[in-house]
Amino acid sequence: MTVLIQERVREARESHTPLRITGRSYWLSAGRPVAAIETVSLTTHSGIVEYVPGDLTITVRAGTTLAEIGRATGAEGQWLPIDPAGSDDGTIGATVATASSGPLARGFGTIRDLVLGVEFVTGEGKIVKGGGRVVKNVAGFDLVRLVTGSWGTLGIVTEVSLRLYALPERRVTIAMEAPTDTRRLAERLGLLRNAPVMPFAMELVNTHLARRAGLPPRPMILMEIGGNAAAVAAQRDALAKLGAVIEASAETWEKVRTAESAGGSVFRMSGLPAGLAARWERAQQIVGTAEGTAEGTLMHASVARGTVRCLVPQELSAEASNLLSAPNADDTVIFESLSHRLWKKLSPTAISDRVSQSIKKAFDPLDILNPGILGPSL
Questions:
Q1: Counting Cβ atoms within 10 Å, is residue 79 exposed (0-12), middle (13-18) or buried (19+)?
Q2: 3-state secondary structure of 219
Q3: Where are the beta strands (DSSP E) in 26-114?
């Protein structure tokens, strides 16, 4: 199958035909518009290539869904702790290409930390392999990280080797009310970061998202802890000393993860974790969250990583756009989804620097792979 993809790329290269690279097509609305004529789908390029439970590693084709990986590893008492936005019906290839991670990155790292090796087809039609299939093999490590998050602009990911973990004996989801005052919120988040607990995930969610997830309709801090019964009990007791806690359904995480803002705008603001409370307040001011809005803006933030993600149900206002485009030393803004007009205004390109341009030319000199999704090649 990889050879067929290779032949398709070579034909496109010869005819100068731009290609749109897709998996299950759930990310088509994300990123800048792609100036492609034809589509290369990896949906049928799926299945497990090699699974060695004793090594806690698995190698799969790019079109394999996260659900398929979950079923295979779960049967062996293992799992791939990755929960990007969307459902498990998404493919591992798209997860790697977009460098998508979710709340579980708090305990297990991002997808970049879980990818051991990768195979991909470059824009010149060459099959390239980086990394390996075992944890101790770090050959080609930089190449693996380079391709992860390149949005298919350097090559079509065809195969991925992944690091797995043993399934914990117990997993418990706990929720705690979050202060609305910024100073008090900062204090609460600081206490949680320094508490004697090792949560798998810890997310701050706003009122609208809390309601959507089945939690009390107010800002909440959502946590997942795991391990054996004694470890879970000890961590729950430690958290209870910081504030009243309630046990929530494990399905709460799925509801947070699959929350969408179809046709709207999505962006992230990141910075030092210590500045999260102030960043949360700035994000609220930017999107102008209003409790009376029909659906409302959905917001969640990684307490450990300091990143706030905002899902706005409509195009950003002129005022919000101006605030996001204003320089801020404490925040880095990354856009996931915008209208075509706003892409040009807020983030015309992410690859205008000389290094990015050189890398792009080395792997896809004719710019036929997802042209424009990271911005024009200047």
A1: middle
A2: coil
A3: 38-41, 48-52, 57-61, 78-79
- Distance of CA 279 to CAs 51, 141, 168, 174, 218, Å? 42, 33, 33, 24, 18
Q: What is the average per-residue pLDDT within 40-55?
A: 95
Q: What is the pLDDT of residues 146-196, one digit of tens each?
A: 999 999 999 999 999 999 999 999 999 999 999 999 999 999 999 999 999
The predicted structure's pLDDT at residue 140: 47
Average model confidence (pLDDT) for the chain? 91
d(CA 355, CA 214): 46
User: Which of the two residues, 70 and 23, has the higher pLDDT score?
Assistant: 70
Q: How far is CA 298 from CA 7, 271, 278, 281, in A?
A: 43, 20, 18, 14
378 pLDDT above the threshold of 60: no
Burial label for 104, CB within 10 Å (0-12, 13-18, 19+), is buried
Q: Listing from the earlier edge strand, what are the strands of the sheet with 48-52?
A: 48-52, 57-61, 155-163, 115-122, 127-131
Q: Band of the pLDDT at 377, cuts 50, 70, 90?
A: low
Number of other CB atoms surrounding residue 161 within 10 Å: 25
Which sign does the torsion angle of CA 147, 21, 12, 125 carry? Answer: positive
Single-letter amino acid code for the residue at 5? I
Domains recognised in the chain with CATH numbers:
2-166 (3.30.465.10), 168-346 (3.40.462)
Tokens of 356: 């990015």
Instruction: Please say whether the beta carbons of 359 and 154 come within 8 A.
Output: yes
CA distance 119 to 50: 14
**Both structure tokens of 295:** 């659906």
The b/e string for 28-56 (b: 16+ C-beta within 10 A; e otherwise) is eebbbebebeeebebeebbeeeebeeeeb
Query: What is the pLDDT, as a whole number, of residue 344?
Result: 86
Quick check: helix, strand or coil at residue 266? Answer: strand
- Residue 34 CA: distances (Å) to CA of 30, 346, 376: 10, 17, 10
Q: Residue 122: CA atoms inside 13 Å, Cβ hemisphere, count? A: 16
* Per-residue pLDDT, 183: 97
